[in-house]
Amino acid sequence: MNMRNTFTLWGPTSLAVLLAASLMSPAFAQTADDQAEAEAQSQASAQEQAQAPEQQTKAQEVSIDAVDSAVQVADQDELPRGHFRLPESGDVIGKRYTVVVEDPKQTLIDIARRHNIGYEEIRMANPDVSLWVPGVGTEVVIPAQYILPPAPREGVVVNLSELRLYYYPADKPGIVETYPVSVGREEFATPVGITRTTVKVKDPAWAPPSSMRREAAERGDPAPAIVPPGPDNPLGEHAILLAMPSYLIHGTNRPDGVGMRVSRGCIRMYPEDIESLYERLPSGTQVNLMDAPFKAGWGSDGTLFVQSFPQLEENVGDFEPLLNALERVTELTEDNIEIDPEQIERAVEAPDGQFIALYGPQAPELEPEPVELIEEIEISASTNANEDA
User: Binning pLDDT at 50, 70 and 90, where does residue 368 land?
Assistant: First the structure.
């Protein structure tokens, strides 16, 4: 796996925001995220938007009722949104369930946000459901079951291919939190490596980078030198700096893009998720940016599950997806456990994030191999010939 060096340098973003925070004035966070990200989001769904423009508008502004509903769902489990109890044994948290659309104006993106799911997650789990007009009575799958990523369970772990962040709070050793995120698109890929959180900034201002300003000027639409806090700020209301140049974990003014590869390298979260994390995440927390497109883990009932996600092109290199998957499963199994390699191959070739049971109570029974009867027929024929003689 392509793991890069640990990042510990201060860049222009870090220094600018740190200075602003120390002076108790609005922070001018020079991040790589910009309004171009919003254009990428629009292009990604342009075809369906053209078919349902009214639903597109609703998708960009999720109602307060949707967020409140998420809190109600979380309260039923006596844990806040995104929080799960770590299993006493195994690697699987959460559960997969379904909901039925009741509001004709509700989009699949509305439903995803309400249930702490990202854009790609909800799309892959419901390939036959319209993104913008799912329709009243439609059953929607909520893929809220996760295999914990293959990394030490400490601090923050961001699995880039999965488009999901995991947080293991040091003051709550039996809890793990997980939230959908956006990461850098291919030409602005989020780097892989170990870093840490530094400064936290409330209501940051945004200074478009020089490259973005040049591109805007060439289009005849000069970018502003500073975007103040407010609805037009792509950083949202909360930003957590990382100890690497120009990378942040932050909110967004375009939450419909959370769960996609649309940023210029930063980690973007739903506004309600970054607000919650902002209040509780200590400065100096380790952040592990990793890329594990294939995950395997044991359920509490002894079932071995695997998940596969679309691999990031920039981290392919000499990486062999199928070989990596086989090695990962081998690490978790013993010699006497029989696994169907074709199931692993299917998971790698169709990376849709779905749970596949390879072994154990929830796994399908392996079909017995056909028995060859040729030798038995030959022996029988030989015996009959001897008797005739």
Answer: low
> Who has greater pLDDT, 240 or 32?
240
**R_g of the chain, CA atoms, integer Å:** 25
Place of tokens 């929607």: 140
pLDDT in tens, 27-55: 444 444 444 444 444 444 434 444 444 44
Residues 203, 204, 205, CA angle at the centre, nearest 5°? 120
The string of pLDDT tens digits covering residues 146-166 is 999 999 999 999 999 999 999
Strand 193-202 to 267-268 pairing: unpaired
Determine which helix (DSSP H) or strand (DSSP E) holds 374, and give its type and residue range.
helix 374-388
Q: Are 118 and 256 in contact (CB under 8 A)?
A: no
pTM: 0.78
The label of the residue with tokens 């199931």 reads 343
Please, what is the angle between helix 341-349 and helix 321-332, to 10°?
A: 130
Positions marked catalytic: 250, 266
Phi, psi of 125 (to 5 degrees): -75, -20
**CA distance readout (Å), 181 to 128, 156, 157, 217, 238:** 23, 13, 12, 30, 14
For the record, the structure tokens of 135 come out as: 């329709």
Element (H, E) at 84: strand 83-85
Residue 147: count of CB within 10 angstroms of its CB: 23
Domains of the chain, start order: 12-290 (2.40.440.10), 294-359 (no CATH)
Q: What single letter denotes the amino acid at residue 234?
A: P
Model confidence at 212, pLDDT cuts 50, 70, 90, reads confident
Alpha-carbon distance 292 to 311, whole Å?
8
Average pLDDT (177-187) is 94
Apex CA 189: angle with CA 123 and CA 277, to 5°? 70
Q: How far is CA 32 from CA 18, 29, 65, 183, 211, in A?
A: 17, 9, 32, 12, 9
Return phi, psi of residue 71, to 5°. -65, -40
With 0-12 / 13-18 / 19 or more C-beta atoms within 10 angstroms meaning exposed / middle / buried, residue 105 is: exposed
**The residue count for the chain:** 389
